[in-house]
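From the pipeline queue, job 12 of 40. The input is one protein chain; the requested action is below.

Action: predict structure.
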Amino acid sequence: MSALKVLDCTLRDGGYYNNWRFDKDLVADYLNAINKSNIDVIEIGFRSIEKNKYFGEYAYSTDSYLNKIIKKFNFKIAVMINAKDLIEMETNNVRIEKFFKNKKLSKVDIIRVACHFEEVAKIINPCKTLKKLGYKLIINFMGTGIKTDKELTKITQIVNNSKLFSVVYFADSFGNMVPNDIKKKYKIIRKIWKGETGFHAHNNLGFALQNALKAREIGINWIDCTILGMGRGAGNVETEILIYNLKKYHKKYKDDEILKLSHKRFRPLKNKFEWGPNIFYYISAKNKIHPTYTQELLSDNRYSADQIVSSIKTLSSSDSSKYKFDKLQDSLMSQLNKDNGSWNATDWCKNKDVLFLGAGKSLENNKDKIAALIRGKKFICISLNINKFVESKFIDMYLACHPSRVLLEINQYKRMKSNLIIPNVILNNLVIKKLKKTNLKDFGLKIKQGMFKPESKSCILPSSLAIGYGLALAVTGRAKNIFLLGFDGYHANDTRQKEMNDLISLYKANKNNPKIFSLSQTTYNIPQKNLL
């Protein structure tokens, strides 16, 4: 059996619970314990593009920071970068050298690229640069447990042909795999890939340890683990338990210091954040729901057990394999009992043309033309949320229907003289009070999969997309025609593209609804009238 490498990724995967903010004394104890345990590699954190939200040092793991904390240790240092960050660098012509120095100038030995299946082909070029900089590269296939054999074969072939990577990892991102699944996936990869392999387990079904041991048994070289299992969702294989099981066959591994570290430093964190398997993670894994949905629900004490169960049930009724904050909110909104608003919108725009403003690049590129168009046409102009490209003097109404978006823009709404249309059912009393002096119109909203049903005081929609809310409002108001500006669309494989096109299909299913046109170029299934 080939040489084993144990990779501890506590500071990287565990950061999902504390925003990658670890106490410096804890980190010092962690590094010393790992060193004394003879663990081969630590993944110290992510190397990420700067985020809007504040994260701790281990979300970025910069070379300057690593120089402060890494002394002379026996283990190798790895960082993980998400494929989407590499793709963003490539798309925006950002030099990779801005984030990664030449290997000779860095404490980092290994770069692991976390990659969804559809991203694999897109990261080959940026990875060529990383390879030239001298790093050992690992690719980590995400969500392997929900992919077909054909899909796994295809991306393994791409990686094999690239000749860039030293190790091919596959991750049980949803925690829905059992030992026999590990064996099947490994065989598929092995038909093509002859180099080293790795496995990253999650514990949603409680099989993380069994899966890791099965991985080693069948010949997988690299096994991931975290102290006390600290990691996203239900967590990972516990380093201390894995080492205890492995040391019988691999004499170099020692568990004494890891056990002390686990009890002294990480037990208090587990008591605080409560990671680990439970029935909610179990149900989510069975239904192929991304674990972040469940983690978010469990970490927010506003939600009762009934709400969590109902939300998970709603998420399981559609593809929830990728985490989207909006989709989580929709699953919670679908539980609202009250959907009627207080404003009867019947005939409010009867026989008039309605123009909805989105936020696409086409708005920014055509600001002057759009202003002239609005002045010259007799549209009722409605902005979906706050619009930074079109002056408020050209806008008759503002419309919003997503709780987080309303909270983000509430101070701007308070200053508005135009009508503001929001379903009060999504707002708490404090927000309603803050908006009391605005021209607020309450048109109700309820979320239900596969439905587009406008009514006099409310609507039922498949999601809380603002344009869906706007279209329902225009149907209730008996608009003559509906025009869109700034709805540029996304790539064909983007989930947002499908969500919008599905909504348009529901809208068009009723032949009596007003005709809808895009006044700027769009990739959506909407006919275009280019008036710019």
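Job complete. Residues 120 and 155 are 6 Å apart (CA to CA).
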